[in-house]
Amino acid sequence: EREKNIMTGVLSLKSKKIRDIMTHLIDVFMLEADQIVDDDLILSVHGYGYSRVPVYEKQRENIIGLVNFRDFALLDTESGKFTVRNVMTFYNRRYAKIVMADDSCYDVFNNLKKEHHHMGVVVEPDPTSEKDPKPRAIGIVTLEDIIEEMIQEEIVDE
Ligand code: ADP
């Protein structure tokens, strides 16, 4: 029975869209690029417990990169002069992998794996702005989200 479920899950990846399995933007824990990295910020990052935290500029839809919770480990917060942006660029994590909301889980899984990304920022082109065709984020997706679809089970994280 379990094997049958897994087979069904794997086969369904081609027809399932990323938008159907993503974590919606409203539920994503993120940081703003110009936030000062102080002890409270680091505490909240650890409190949420996510390995990766998207970084946005001004609006949450405008994700410009991501940080890893480990990036804050050796940081001296005393001086109060480091921003999230500084940390992000120091660790060279500026570019988050962009994935299209209507792409299939199958294609996105292969692309993320091929390019050694764990997380993708899900976007759809903004139909309202002609001048600024910059895509806006509507959510995130990680390899774990897709693997869960594949095996049709929740993965319980430690
Ligand atoms: P982690 O390695 O941080 O445990 P995973 O990649 O295993 O994260 O993903 C576990 C779940 O948490 C997935 O559903 C993923 O979409 C979600 N997730 C990952 N990072 C974040 C975040 N910063 N904010 C909200 N949800 C997240």
From TrEMBL:
<feature type="domain" description="CBS">
    <location>
        <begin position="88"/>
        <end position="158"/>
    </location>
</feature>
<protein>
    <submittedName>
        <fullName>Uncharacterized protein</fullName>
    </submittedName>
</protein>
<comment type="similarity">
    <text>Belongs to the ACDP family.</text>
</comment>
